[in-house]
Write a structure and sequence with these properties.
single chain; alpha/beta; Rossmann fold; seven-stranded mixed beta sheet; 10 strands
């Protein structure tokens, strides 16, 4: 059955159509974007978005007139991401597991919430159990895959990417944000603004913590643009 479905999807894609499963989501958390974020996006040459999922922000980037490079580790949804980007001429996706080492085989845990919380780290106390920040989601990992890691610098070099043209970075790697930054020694020089997901507590076991990310970015001459007062969220940094 699965082989037949994949064949149908492949044939439809060849003629510009697709077979799509409609997913009803009940977990939207709509936030008013900070004016500093809108300003950073508006003046950026392009966007480097790590942790693409299905490319939900693609229409926003298109509205701003930005070219975009997406990176998604999960091979299960990568084909859907690619399909979703077909309509956008200047948006392209790469399937890669970003870390601070090249060629390391790593367990990638697939989550139950439409894979949105999939990670190389297992869930921590703030993701599951009585202390969960999202008790209604009942987060858990339902499967795992062995994937080979790659650094940002190697991804850029291997694919002949002109990273200067993608100076606004979005990093949403479910606890692997610091590892990604550590593997971007050369590329980070051209990042002028960064919107990054951070956590103060144990959202992912052994995942990046807010103070570690803050220390790394301040050391590399980035300034946080607003106070971070919650246990988990996104914050904008601007290159000084």
């Amino acid at each position: 059955m699965k082989k037949t479905k994949n064949l149908i999807k492949f044939l439809l894609r060849k003629i510009g159509w697709r077979l799509e499963k409609l997913i009803k989501r009940n977990d939207y958390n709509i936030e008013v974007p900070h004016k500093e974020l809108l300003s950073a996006l508006s003046i950026a040459k392009g966007v480097f978005h790590l942790g693409a999922h299905r490319g939900e922000e693609a229409p926003i980037y298109e509205w701003f007139g930005k070219k975009v490079l997406w990176v998604e580790a999960n091979p299960v949804i990568f084909a859907e991401l690619s399909d979703n980007l077909i309509k956008y001429r200047f948006q392209k996706a790469y399937q890669a597991l970003i870390s601070n080492e090249d060629g390391k085989e790593i367990d990638f845990y697939l989550s139950n919430n439409d894979y949105a919380s999939s990670s190389i780290f297992e869930f921590g106390t703030l993701s599951s159990g009585s202390s969960s920040l999202w008790p209604d989601k009942h987060l858990k990992h339902v499967n795992k895959k062995k994937l080979l890691s790659i650094t940002i610098d190697t991804l850029v070099e291997k694919n002949s990417i002109n990273i200067k043209d993608y100076d606004h970075w979005v990093i949403d790697l479910q606890g692997a944000e610091l590892l990604a930054l550590e593997g971007a020694v050369a590329s980070l020089k051209f990042c002028k603004s960064m919107y990054i997901e951070v956590s103060k507590g144990d959202v992912y076991k052994k995942g990046a913590k807010w103070n570690e990310v803050l220390f790394f970015l301040e050391k590399n001459n980035y300034k946080q643009m607003w106070d971070f007062t919650s246990n988990h969220g996104n914050i904008l940094f601007i290159k000084k």
